[in-house]
Design goal:
Layout (H helix, E strand, L loop, with lengths): L12 E4 L3 H6 L6 E3 L5 E3 L4 E4 L1 H7 L1 H8 L5 H19 L17 H4 L3 H9 L7 E3 L5 E6 L9 E4 L5 E6 L3 E6 L5 H10 L5 H11 L5 H15 L7 E4 L2 E4 L14 H10 L4 H10 L7
Parallel strand pairs: 5-11
Antiparallel strand pairs: 1-4, 2-3, 6-9, 7-8, 8-9, 10-11
The structure holds zinc ion.
Length: 291
């Protein structure tokens, strides 16, 4: 029996990475999820081993809060992190080329497991009321209205080193989480839009400039570009018995002066865009941003 991906006890149950209530809501039964090595897998088969305690006790409270739309930002953060983490566990086992398994895994284990110690520590203590995250929420959490109003499902999973997840929720909502920025992407956008009327103005502008059908990809891309622009995100964390603590956050945000095309291309590709789209974005940046 394989060990539980959260606590390493025997994993005697199956954890559906995309929760079954969400699969039912969006009628995903016969649809496929594209994995990192471009192979496809039915949503109902995208599972990881988990023990009964993690699967039903520890995560069920979190799951039902998200299902009922009653979660806090930090709870949405943890819920999305669980999905991203489980997908990263699968990523590490996928061969780069299914026809040529001798080429080895898509992601080397040392890359695919970066961050897992922090995540396991957080999940292990999740059930304790006094467990703390500093800052709170620990990343940037956005819940916005899906402008296409089509009630369609969308998922953008961005692996290491960028770490983001965008996923459709019921009632035409989209949840987008940037995991490792300590909330600074959101703070930066709030600062920029403070005098313009707040983030609702940003989403309106964004909706106008985004082609329909690719909203989740564009959203994730824009948020990750902002993360890349920020040059003073303190990435270090310390794990304590009573919490996960970030290094001190900066009083003033600093921005990178030059953005490099290879990094933009990598972010674009992770979001499901072609190289051409990345180049278009790069060309549209002010000249002083192009590195
Ligand atoms: Zn477990």
């Amino acid at each position: 029996m394989k060990p539980c991906v959260f606590c390493e006890q025997p994993g005697d149950t199956k954890e559906h990475i995309i929760p079954r209530w969400l699969q039912r809501h969006f009628d995903l039964k016969d649809q496929n999820l594209q994995m990192i090595n471009k192979t496809k897998n039915q949503y109902c088969r995208v599972i990881v081993p988990a023990c009964k305690k993690c699967n039903s006790e520890i995560f069920s409270r979190l799951e039902s809060k998200v299902r009922l739309g009653m979660a806090t930002e930090q709870e949405y953060y943890l819920w999305a992190l669980k999905i991203r983490y489980c997908l990263s566990v699968i990523d590490s086992s996928l061969p780069e080329d299914r026809a040529k398994p001798e080429k080895g895994p898509m992601l080397l284990e040392q890359f695919s497991t970066i961050g897992h110690d922090v995540i396991k520590h957080a999940f292990k203590h999740l059930i304790e009321d006094k467990f703390f995250f500093m800052p709170y929420p620990f990343g940037s959490v956005f819940i916005i209205k899906n402008p296409s109003q089509d009630e369609g499902f969308g998922l953008v999973d961005v692996s290491h080193p960028h770490w983001a997840l965008t996923i459709a929720l019921p009632n035409n909502r989209i949840l987008s989480v940037i995991f490792t920025d300590r909330g600074l992407v959101k703070r930066s956008l709030q600062e920029q839009y403070k005098s313009k009327g707040g983030l609702s103005i940003l989403w309106k502008e964004f909706e106008k400039s985004t082609p329909t059908g690719f909203f989740s990809q564009h959203l994730t891309f824009r948020l990750l570009l902002m993360q890349y622009q920020l040059s003073n995100i303190p990435y270090g964390v310390s794990l304590k018995k009573n919490g996960v603590y970030s290094k001190k956050l900066p009083n003033k945000l600093k921005y990178r002066e030059k953005l490099k095309l290879p990094v933009i291309s990598q972010i674009a590709e992770f979001c499901g865009f072609s190289k051409e789209v990345a180049q278009d974005v790069y060309r549209s940046l002010p000249a002083n941003y192009r590195g």
